[in-house]
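INFO batch 0412 | record 1 of 1 | parsing
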Amino acid sequence: MVWLYIFVSLTVASVLGSCPALSKKPFAVPYHQLYQTIEDPEVLQFLNAGLQMLQRAHEPLEFSVNEILLLQSKKNERGHRYAIAEGFSLTEIVDAEAGIFAIYISVPPSHREFYPLLAHEIGHLKQPSLIDDWAMEGFCMLFSEDLCDQQGQDWSIWKRRLHADSDDPYARAYHRALRLK
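INFO prediction complete | emitting tokens
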């Protein structure tokens, strides 16, 4: 039995020792250069329609939006070198003065939650410097629902989720925003 333990320990050590270690991302390397770009024309049309809707109905925006880098939060070839997260959705200010933002989506465009997630993140362009603000999250949920409805994208999976779990903080934010609408 002791031999089996030693064999397993040595095997695990040799496997772990032969795996390249992921390094910490250098500060000078922007995150948006480490994730997969989404260039699907239908998705880009949706993104543009969402930005136009946001600018028309919810002016003023905190910053001018001149460019949006749309990414799936899945590492690209360069990103595989670094110990960075994957599978998240968020809006990042890349350069506020130049009006450049990155939107990361956790799932590919073929996933049924892609368009609701993208619409939600477009909503964050109204005031992207707000972090952990549940009123903003409620606004983004309503914006996502409206944009998906306007663009013919299914939002029902989120609607069911928001009505099924009253303890979910996004559900509470959504219902609070609905009452204030």
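INFO post-check: Confidence is low (pLDDT under 50) at residues 1-19.
INFO record closed
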